[in-house]
């Protein structure tokens, strides 16, 4: 398998774009893919903060829990779940058996940084288990990271569908049109990660994957974050207007991590 060529601008931009674009729809869900990509309310949320924290931990070879707490405490109003917020502010807190999709929303750097499926799966579990040590929390992180690894490694869509479905037991035979009418806000890995992966599988480009995820009317920023990360790994090219829209909304310290991560792990 040969790595796909990716544009510069940040190999985490797809995931972060999904978070930002989806942020305005998290509490105002829509059932359509027809909406402005960016609006005055578009902002980064906890998805971005914790994605950058995971990337920083990989770059600096630091403990995931320490980095998640460090970055999270610097941005305390980013929209964390109640349980994670309590964990984040307790330096000696233990994992709290979460099956929430927070483990999957932050894991995209793992899929880009490690060079074998086994390494990606092991590192995804490690990044999740510091807080989300429930089997479903770990599975959601592993499925997302492995999908990114397979996508960037040159696997085709149907191979990715088969591998994730067979390995994790996710039902990826459904269509978005079948899911959309009855789908509602769901923060569990088992109730949102498969749908986010399907949003990529039915897309034709990164923007389409993000729009698909948001159009389901669920946990829009997190599902679009997951779909956007996989889509960038698969398609490579992120439109410059999306790259610019993301970068202009990020603090300089995040851009420094994103650019350092790009420099270290961009495969040409």
Please outline what is shown here.
The protein is mainly α and 268 residues long.
Strand content: under 5%
Largest sheet: none
Helix-strand topology string: HHHHHHHHHHHHHHH
Query: In the CATH scheme, what's the topology name?
Result: ADP-ribosylglycohydrolase fold
How many helices? The count is: 15
The multimeric state of the shown protein is single chain
Count of individual domains: 1
Notable characteristics:
268 residues; mainly alpha; ADP-ribosylglycohydrolase fold; 15 helices; globular; disordered N terminus
Task: Kindly describe this structure.
The longest helix has 18 residues, at 135-152. 59% of the residues lie in helices and 0% in strands. It has 268 residues and is mostly helical. The protein is globular. It starts with 12 loop residues before the first helix and ends with a helix. It has one domain (13-33, 44-262): ADP-ribosylglycohydrolase fold.
């Amino acid at each position: 398998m040969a790595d796909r060529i990716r544009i510069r601008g940040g190999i985490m931009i797809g995931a972060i774009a999904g978070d930002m674009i989806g942020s305005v729809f998290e509490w105002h869900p829509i059932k359509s893919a027809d909406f402005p990509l960016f609006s005055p309310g578009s902002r980064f949320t906890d998805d971005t903060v914790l994605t950058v924290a995971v990337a920083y931990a990989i770059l600096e070879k630091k403990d995931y829990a320490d980095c998640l707490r460090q970055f999270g405490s610097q941005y305390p109003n980013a929209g964390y779940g109640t349980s994670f917020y309590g964990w984040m502010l307790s330096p000696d807190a233990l994992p709290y058996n979460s099956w929430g999709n927070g483990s999957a929303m932050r894991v995209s750097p793992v899929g880009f940084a490690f060079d074998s499926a086994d390494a990606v799966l092991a590192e995804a579990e490690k990044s999740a288990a510091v807080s989300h040590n429930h089997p479903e929390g770990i599975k959601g992180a592993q499925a997302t990271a492995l999908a990114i690894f397979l996508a960037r490694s040159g696997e085709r869509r149907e191979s990715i569908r088969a591998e994730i479905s067979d390995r994790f037991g996710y039902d990826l035979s459904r269509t978005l049109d079948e899911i959309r009418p009855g789908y509602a806000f769901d923060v569990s890995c088992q109730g949102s990660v498969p749908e986010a992966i399907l949003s990529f599988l039915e897309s034709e480009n990164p923007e389409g994957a993000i729009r698909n995820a948001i159009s389901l009317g669920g946990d829009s920023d997190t599902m679009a974050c997951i779909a956007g990360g996989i889509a960038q790994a698969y398609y490579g090219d992120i439109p410059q207007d999306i790259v610019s829209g993301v970068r202009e909304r990020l603090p300089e310290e995040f851009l420094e991590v994103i650019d350092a991560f790009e420099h270290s792990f961009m495969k040409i």
